[in-house]
Amino acid sequence: MFMRIDHVGIACHDLEEKIAFFERTFELTVVAREVNQEQGVKEAMLHIADGQGGGSYIQLLEPLDPDTPVGKFLAKRGEGVHHVAFGVPDVAQALETIGGRGVRLLDEKPRHGSMGSSIAFLHPKDVAGMLTELVQAPER
Ligand code: CMX
Ligand code: CO
Description:
The chain is an alpha+beta fold.
């Protein structure tokens, strides 16, 4: 069902500072920067590699507001890994299948994600404490 790891999302206080750190330390390149009002974040995608089914990335996330998922996470836990995103061929279908197996869905329907993707989240308490995102690449 999962094709690959699409990205690892990292919560940070200062997006520009963390972009500079990942660029100089790991020689990664920013391929997209976006503000996603619906998710309450300012974000950057840093490319790692290309594989079957699409690329893999580090997603750096700065909250737009303290009262957002990433803002609350930072206040509670500080900077660090916020979620892991799996690439799937069809998010709506994956939600139906995974929801049917008793995992709470944070999104009943796919939403807009980075670089034109469709995304949806699964409750971390039902996935071994890991906030899980499903990502479907945009139609080419
Ligand atoms: N990873 C693991 N556990 C998490 C978590 C995370 N990122 N965020 C919250 N939790 C845990 C908390 O530690 C808490 O556990 P305890 O009760 O044991 O302390 C529990 O989940 C509830 O957390 P909360 O702080 O009360 O927060 P909420 O329940 O209000 O929200 C969540 C948590 C996961 C439902 C919410 O963050 C959410 O809907 N996330 C999905 C959307 C999102 O994260 N968007 C930003 C990324 C966008 C993108 O990738 O494009
Ligand atoms: Co993400």
